[in-house]
Amino acid sequence: GIFVTCLSLMVVWVPNATSDVGTANLSLLLVFSIIVMVENMVNSGASAQYQIIAMNRLHEYIALPEEGPEELPSDAPYLNHNIRIPRSELVKLDSQEVSGGLQLSIRGSRLDVLLRQAPD
């Protein structure tokens, strides 16, 4: 941009800078073509750099270890359990604290433990 402008002004303002108009036109045309060629080379280099970065990222993603399954067989003791019992089938329950947790049993029977809270 600025180089071509300066060259054009030099051709117009400086007397005897070129022998004729054809030489000035040819020099400006060559300067424009060089600028366009350099711009295309920079654009090609930037595109190649983006492609190399994309290939490098793919290579890094492929090298990542595979994720494990969402649930393991050893997870069973840690899963939440939902129990749905109709009110008509409920019996009288006793609750008591045992070793930092709550324990539910049928009233009058301390041996039949229905539910025991795991300690935190």
Automatic annotation (TrEMBL):
InterPro entries: ABC1_TM_sf (IPR036640). GO terms for molecular function: ATP binding. SUPFAM superfamilies: ABC transporter transmembrane region. Residues 1-19 form the signal peptide. It comes from the Eukaryota. GO terms for cellular component: membrane. Keywords: Membrane, Signal, Transmembrane, Transmembrane helix. This is Uncharacterized protein. It comes from Pyrodinium bahamense.
